[in-house]
Design a protein that fits this description.
This protein is α+β, with helices and mostly antiparallel strands and about 290 residues long. Helices cover about 60% and strands about 10% of the residues.
Length: about 290
């Protein structure tokens, strides 16, 4: 992530700290960092970002305005003395770390309660941004596996579905860890991860013979990639009149769903099961034929 084109406009004397610009700089850095952080780690919608930054700005006696889309924002901060600050923030799409989202909410609540100066809040925010993952890689794989297993009975109440979810969830967990270690894989994870999971399902779990079809067998393992948060945020943004960020998130969610479908279809063709097997559940024990 990066922020660029930061500019300042000051009125009156340039006496620095004597006119309070030192404290103002702390507020500017805090609001800019908070904007970047919320854009990167929260998928709750642009209106949530706007309202949070506005509220934090009011605590420190400034007027903050944001023009936000899904992957960037323009921040304008106006101080009581007439000084203004502008920052253009751009972030790349990322998978949300819920631990950081939760900690950021507690931090914002403390700021709104007047318990932190702008400098202290900025330092805490910086420590959050540089914090490491709370769990080791092997425990994260177990977590993804348990997530898939827990979701499986909601798809099909069979032991085969639960067993398949455990295997495919473990595979997806490994893919998630690989995405952290291999540069560029994170952006391709929806299609690459789905492709790997679907190949394992078709080749080793015989998903083409599963009751209800192979897609139902694979859904628990792929559920963590389904862009439900993007769809919810897009719906909320469009509902409150934030059409630009809502449309961007909706398009991003649609592309992700297309990638998921493409991964399954490509895997079906590569394993010889045929794309028709994705839509044809087993009937009377007859194996779905290729093509």
């Amino acid at each position: 992530m990066k922020a660029n084109r930061r500019t300042e406009a000051r009125s009156g004397s340039d006496a620095g700290d004597a006119n309070g610009f030192g404290a103002d700089d702390d507020v500017d850095r805090l609001l800019s960092g908070l904007t970047r952080f919320l854009l990167l780690h929260s998928a709750e919608g642009a209106f949530e970002l706007r309202d949070t930054v506005r509220a934090v700005g009011r605590v420190y006696g400034t007027q903050a305005e944001i023009l936000a889309i899904a992957e960037g924002a323009v921040l304008t901060v106006r101080h009581p003395g007439g000084r203004s600050y502008h920052d253009t923030v751009r972030v790349g799409p990322d998978l949300t770390r819920l631990d950081l989202v939760s900690k950021a909410k507690f931090l914002v609540n403390r700021i709104l309660a007047g318990k932190l100066s702008a400098a202290a809040a900025g330092q805490e925010l910086a420590s959050l941004e540089s914090s490491r993952e709370p769990y080791p890689w092997w425990l994260r794989i177990i977590g993804v596996t348990l997530f898939a297993v827990g979701f499986a009975p909601g798809v099909q109440q069979t032991w085969r579905e639960v067993a398949a979810a455990a295997v495919l969830g473990a595979v997806m967990g490994v893919m998630f860890i690989a995405a952290d270690w291999v540069g560029g894989l994170r952006l391709l994870l929806p299609i690459v991860g789905t492709l790997v999971v679907a190949i394992v399902a078709f080749e080793f779990l015989h998903a083409q013979d599963a009751p209800g079809g192979p897609v139902l067998l694979m859904i628990p393992g792929l559920f963590i990639l389904i862009p439900g948060d993007l769809l919810c945020a897009a719906t909320a943004e469009i509902a409150v009149g934030q059409f630009t960020p809502g449309a961007v998130r909706l398009a991003q969610a649609a592309v992700t769903l297309v990638q998921l479908a493409a991964g399954v279809i490509i895997a079906a063709e590569l394993t010889g099961s045929g794309s028709r097997s994705c839509l044809s559940p087993r009937r009377r024990g007859i194996r779905c034929r290729p093509g």
